Amino acid sequence: MSEFLPLLLVNVPASSAQTRMANEACSRAAVAVLGCMILVLLGSFFVRWPRMPADPTTIMGMMYYVCDPFIIEKFEGMSILEKKERDTRVRKMGLKYKFGEIMDIPGRKRIGVYTVEDHSCQPV
Fold it and tell me: Do residues 93 and 74 make contact, with C-beta atoms less than 8 angstroms apart?
């Protein structure tokens, strides 16, 4: 929506070369888009986001969520492969992943990534 908004705002100022109908249509459409964007922004404050013990955008956060022996053994040895070959092998695995509460090896509950087909590390 934000990429579409400047196209509407270009026609908002009235000039003698523009018709009143085009000016009003673009003005109303721009106000509607802005209103929708404001509602989404306000609504995001009321959404309950899941508790995340580590920021997944950092290296440490990624290690926390993905460093699980069940997932690590599936990708063992792939770090030395070329990108194209590695990507092909990962696609051929056909694994689906979920993010949620899991039981790790010592028997503790924690947030992490698990494979949907993996029955040894199921969500709690």
Answer: yes
